[in-house]
Amino acid sequence: MISVKTDNSDLKKYYHNLQNSEDLDPLLERIGDSKYVLLGEASHGTHEYYTWRAQISKRLIEEKGFSFIAVEGDWPDCYKINKWIKNYPDSGEKIQDVLKEFNRWPTWMWANWEIAAFANWLKNYNSKLTDSKKIGFYGLDVYSLWDSMEILVDYLEKEDPETAKIAKNAFRCFEPYKERDSYASVFKSAKEGCKAEVIQLLKEVRYNAHSYDTEEEADLNAEINALVMANAEKYYEAMAGFGDDSWNVRDRHMVETLNTLMDYHDADAKVIVWEHNTHVGDARATGMAASGLLNVGQLVREQHKDEGVVLVGFGSYSGSVMAGSSWGAPMQKMKVPKGIEGSLERQLHKTDPTDKLIIFDEHPELKEAFAERIGHRAIGVVYDPGWERGNYVPSRMSDRYDAFLFIDKTEALHPLKIKPKGELTPETYPFGI
């Protein structure tokens, strides 16, 4: 494994201490007037990644006027959080009840106490704002095909009967595949793809969206659900080997959804994105590019660099994580081994075993030191600590990210099924259990 000379003690003077929200000042300065801030995570099950992203997001909202948060989650489920924090009618009493409706595996990604605390903060913050200024919370992912179909058909039957007929035709087009797992589905029948039906539906919804006004953001909700249907067809087809790689289809969908959200908001809108490092960190600085893969970070940089894009990665040396031993397996708290020899995580720990913030373009020495390829750990929702060496992505860190938060020892996320220690409040929860 290729490693950079990050154990050089001379670099320590450029690292920023990371203990509390005030220590984020250098990152806020680096972000400046940027309109796109993408916050990563090295796993989907680590407490500190969620809470530090919440702290960064709170400061961006309060101090720099960011408009909404877009996450690696399904649109229908995340839209329920959006309705709750904006206090829309029939949005539910408690955030715990809303989050318990996240029933697609892995449930712990969003049905956790860390998100509950942040959602409480967002709702309180929104209570002081006019409706047009309330902070939103939206899902970018493509996996909610069946939920999106049902929501769209139900809504259109009430508000737009003619377009509802198109939606029903599209629904029937997908029916043969409904019993298949939405992550592992493949097309095995000889039936033509559903592309014509869903594209027609998307065009009709976009054309008529201005008239969907019986509910708050009804036009946006209808358009995104139709977009999910359109891109899900491409995604499933790609998984069967009949089109572009499914990874690229998925990340392009997330960026298309992000662009739709930005267009929906006013011209001054700014967005915070929460996704895994593998989506946030620029694919061109990893081995992904050689395999023909792209990702959200790369696409957003390419499309919006003139508006300001800041990519922030996260990582840790050791600790614990919430994950499953196989796809669909029960979640469990797993040990995260110490970073392996020659990895970024091991080097940062050896140099200075404390939590730190690194801004790569702050000093030429940092930019140069982190420009060489080094293994950088990525933990998925399926994790086997015994196969640790296979979890490292060769990365040119100062090209992959603009900044990096390193937490030396982390702990597992806290699913709703596990009662937290202490009182759950947005003021106290992010920095302690």
From TrEMBL:
Stored InterPro entries: Emycin_Estase, Hydrolase/PRTase-associated, UCP036794_erythomycin
Sequence intervals crossing the membrane: none
Source organism superkingdom: Bacteria
Pfam families named among the record's database cross-references: Erythro_esteras
Matching SUPFAM superfamilies: EreA/ChaN-like
Protein name: Erythromycin esterase family protein
Natural source organism: Autumnicola edwardsiae
